[in-house]
Specification:
Layout lengths: L2 H12 L4 H12 L2 H17 L9 H20 L10 H10 L8 H20 L2 H12 L4 H8 L3 H23 L1
Helix pairs in contact: 2-3, 2-4, 2-7, 3-4, 4-8, 5-6, 6-9, 7-9, 8-9
Length: 179
């Protein structure tokens, strides 16, 4: 087995299991499924080039760090600085369409669940990028504060305050929509 084949096998073993995590993070940062795919593709190319430098034990955090940097670079190149993130309506509608009504007790509970999920996704999507990214890494990806700090390049205290503020803003938005 040649060096290139070893590199491919190592990439497949260490990185491939975390591609869905990479996509979710990229999607959280870019707010677009198409842009997220582009970011993940570029991040995978970068990861493949450096695959021999990663330890087996931290491949997930390493990949997510690459995705974070790639997405930030992509945003600087492709979006004006004044762009305000909005919810990806098509993604919300697609998720709603995939809802399995067989799991619901009644059509009414299915509708309530779909509505609540859409509201939560809209609320998360309206968070500023640093808050949305931190929230996604913690609540969706399940990373700890240290891992998030390493990925985003900010101190742990900043991670904690961003997560707290994101949660507070989500609570406020959800509460306002209930009235």
């Amino acid at each position: 087995m040649g060096a290139e084949e070893d590199k491919k096998a190592r990439f497949a073993r260490l990185i491939t299991p975390y591609l869905s995590h990479a996509y979710r993070l990229a999607r959280s940062i870019t707010s677009s499924p198409t842009d997220a795919e582009d970011v993940v593709q570029e991040a995978c190319l970068r990861a493949f080039r450096g695959i021999n430098g990663v330890a087996d034990t931290n491949a997930r955090a390493w990949l997510l760090t690459i995705v974070h940097h790639t997405a930030c670079t992509w945003l600087r190149k492709n979006r004006p600085a004044a762009l305000i993130s909005v919810v990806d309506v098509a993604a919300v509608e697609a998720k709603q369409a995939k809802f399995d009504e067989q799991d619901a007790d009644t059509p009414e509970t299915a509708l309530i669940a779909k509505t609540n999920r859409a509201r939560l996704e809209a609320a998360i999507g309206s968070l500023s990028l640093p808050y949305r990214e931190t929230f996604t890494l913690r609540e969706v990806e399940g990373l700890n504060y240290r891992e998030i700090a390493e990925i985003t390049g900010v101190p742990i205290g900043t991670v904690m305050s961003r997560l707290s503020r994101a949660r507070d803003q989500l609570d406020d938005m959800i509460e306002r929509n209930r009235l």
